[in-house]
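FAQ: What does the model actually see?

It sees only this:
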Amino acid sequence: MKRIGTLALTLALALSLAACGASGASASSSAAVAAGATYDTAADAVEESAYASTDASNGVFAPAEEQERKIILTADLSIEALDFDAVCAALEQAAADADGYISNSYVEGREGQSRRYASYTFRIPAASYREFLTSASGAGNLLSKTESEEDITLQYVDTEARITALETQRDSLNEMLANATDVETLLAIRTELSDVQYQLESYQAQKRVMDNQVEYTTVNVSVREVLRETENPESFADRLASNFANGWYDFGNGLMDVAVTLVYLLPWIIVAAAIVAACVVAARRAKNKRASVQPPALKPDAEEPPRK
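And it is asked to produce this:
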């Protein structure tokens, strides 16, 4: 009987709060939540307007189609650099001019020892996205550029609707908590309030992540140091001339690589040659020594004349 009385008291409080503190679409949602409905029921009450979001100016719900589109922009650039340091500095300056920042960077190799490679991840404000792409593409010899767009408008509006429903449920539970009179009701409301607050904070965190992804675009740039920029001929004659020149260029680089490899292996070759020469000399000395100590061969006795 006591449990039935508690539930009846909770229902009465919920109905009175819903009648006093809600109007329109918000009232129906508050009543459903305060009456003990689950979160999904409250969310359905808010989502009946086709994924609507609250308009703070007049308190009505606007259809998702009227919302500002939420687009996540991403780009990938591949660049060759004759002057590696200058290209990297130009990219960093372009990001600073666009009010962006470097989210991640990686540099491989050392100056004068090997051809270096760098990888950057830039976060650029959406308003400066095109300007930065133009500056970054002109920093070196652009090999490739890819762009992608992801529309998260429906997901964003759905998250906003869930946040609105949870906020309504939280406010109703707080009012019920203030008017609760017995310990069992207090504990039940606090448990539900804790669960609602946890869900609300989770969706708010998701919304902040989406806001950041929309506000700041992601541009990945790879920079490779080269001795000669790659050409992109268009006509057949240009392609023939370019391939002929590239063939001679690669042949010359091959000879240089062979020379560098030989110079690198020269100490090993010298040591190996010295060891082989020492082994040959030692073998000859051993052979001569054995020949000098060997006794002379005995001459065979003169053959006796045949007897008559």
